[in-house]
Every structure is written in C-alpha cells, then in structure tokens.
Write a structure and sequence with these properties.
Elements (H helix, E strand, L loop, with lengths): L2 H30 L3 H27 L14 H28 L9 H27 L2 H30 L6 H28 L6 H12 L6 E10 L2 E10 L5 H18 L3 E10 L3
Parallel strand pairs: 2-3
Antiparallel strand pairs: 1-2
Helix pairs in contact: 1-2, 1-4, 2-3, 2-5, 2-6, 3-5, 3-6, 4-5, 5-6, 7-8
C-alpha cells in the first residue's frame, strides 16, 4: 500500500471514531433537550460514519496492485467511493427535510438551553476535523478523502444552523418552538449543495476528464527536456485513484534505430515520473520528426 493511500485510510479511521462519538452525543442531547434539529444533526453524523467506512474501503481497494482481471489496476474504486459519499449526503438531506417538515406541523416543546453548549462543541470539533482531512486529501490527491472532508464541513454547517434555530426558539418563547425545525430544513438545503459539489469531481474522475493544463504543462516540459526529443503531441492524461496514467506521442530523428527509439522512450518515461511522482504509468508512441 502506498504512503498516500495509508494516510487517506488513517484520516478515514479518525473520522469514523469522531463521528461515532458525536452522533451518540447529539442524539442523546436532541432527545433529552427536545431539539429535533439536533436529532437531525445526529442523523447526518451517522451518514458521516458510513461515508468514512466507504472512503476507507475505497482507498483499500484502489491501492491494490493490477492483476489479470484488472490490468489497469483498481484506482477507479477511489472516485466511486467519493460518488457514494455524495449520494449518501443527498439521502441524508432528503431524510432530514422530510422529518423537519413533519416536526414543523407537529406542536412540541421548546428546546432545552443546554443543547446550545453541545452544538458549540460539535462545531469546533468538526471544523478542526474538516481542516485536517482536507489537508490530507489535497496532499495525496484523493477525491474521496476530500469528499469526506466536506462531509465533515457540512456537519459543522448543520450544527451552526441548529444553534441559530434553537437560539431563536429560546429567545422567541411560546410560538417559536418550531424555529429549530426550520433550521433543520435550511441545513438540509446546505447539505444538498455540498453533495452536488462533491459529486461533480467524482464523476469527472470516473469519466477520465483531463486533470487540467497545469499538469499537462509539467509533463510536456519533462518530456521536451529529455535529450534527442524533437517534439511531442497528443498528451493525454487520466486520473486513476491517487495516481495518473499518461499517453503521449514523442517525435525523434527519423534515422535512429528501433533500439535507440526504445531507449529514448524509456528516458522520457523516467523524466516524467521523476518530475511528477504522482504519474504511475507512461505510454510512449515513438514517431519520426518531420519538419
């Protein structure tokens, strides 16, 4: 297993532990304190638990070596895990919205003041976890880990909405009991926005969308910097898990032997992989350079 995959799995395990504790705390506080928005927040944290499990499993599968059945490796498991996390967020948002509407239509007691203290602690923990997980996801280039990070941020946002809703209910007094339910409904909308935001890059990776001009420029520079390379063209890059696969055409002098062309392609591969360690495979098509 690569160091990048190991770091990603460790952050997923950390998120799993934290979310389990927070889900229990919020569920108990929500039931005891008559705050449905806190119960909804606990549901979202439960979804976070499963999302961390999905990311964990996705990274473990993606880190497997290529074999006869999957000659290009298992890397696609990583963006698939990210897509599953995003879809789970959408499901959690739908469940929260339905329950919030039912609670708005049902008279209930005003939330207890102590639930505000619980929410302050939750927001602090989740924001710290978001920053840590996002930093790891960006460092290792994992769409799934970054999706898990934004899942933590969405949990912090729902907790902030819960804090506002409960505060309004407490300050407004009789007649304002459903303020926390309206806050839960608003939080569901925020979760939907984040879910769509996470789903797009996952789909991009699954569909082999080009990772962008910056990486292509670095690969081109490494190839052109290799001696005896006259030109390059048709640089194609696709992301597979935490690594990249590159396909490009390299032009050299028409008179060189097949043996020398083979050696040159090897030097180009080495130059690209040395310049961009995230590149795992390079397929070179040798062509004669014609002026």
């Amino acid at each position: 297993m690569s160091a990048s995959a190991r770091r990603g799995i460790q952050t997923a395990q950390l998120g799993l532990l934290v979310n389990t504790c927070l889900a229990v705390v919020k569920l108990v506080a929500g039931i005891a304190g008559n705050a449905y928005v806190l119960v909804a927040d606990a549901v979202e944290s439960s979804a976070d638990i499963f999302s961390s499990l999905v990311v964990w499993g996705g990274l473990r599968i993606a880190s497997r070596e290529a074999d006869e059945d999957y000659p290009f490796g298992y890397g696609k498991a990583e963006p698939l895990a990210a897509a599953v996390v995003a879809l789970m967020l959408l499901g959690a948002a739908a469940a929260i919205a339905v329950e919030a509407i039912q609670e708005i239509r049902t008279p209930h007691h005003t939330p207890a003041p102590f639930t505000l203290a619980v929410l302050v602690g939750v927001v602090a923990v989740k924001e710290v976890l978001f920053r840590k997980v996002l930093a790891v996801g960006s460092a290792v280039g994992s769409t799934a880990v970054k999706a898990d990070a934004w899942h933590h941020r969405s949990d912090a946002i729902t907790s902030i909405a819960a804090f506002v809703g409960i505060s309004v209910a407490l300050a407004g007094g009789p007649g304002w009991e459903s303020a926390d339910d309206w806050a839960a409904l608003f939080a569901a909308g925020i979760i939907v926005f984040n879910a769509v935001r996470l789903l797009r890059p996952a789909v991009d990776d699954i569909m082999d969308r080009s990772p962008g001009n910056e990486l292509e420029a670095r690969i081109s520079a490494a190839a052109l910097g290799t001696s005896d390379v006259r030109a390059i063209e048709k640089v194609r890059i696709r992301k597979v898990g935490l690594t990249y696969q590159v396909d490009l055409h390299v032009q050299a002098e028409p008179g060189i032997s097949l043996h020398d062309a083979h050696l040159l392609s090897g030097r180009v591969k080495g130059a690209i992989r040395a310049a961009i360690p995230e590149v795992e495979g390079v397929l070179i098509h040798m062509e004669p350079h014609e002026v």
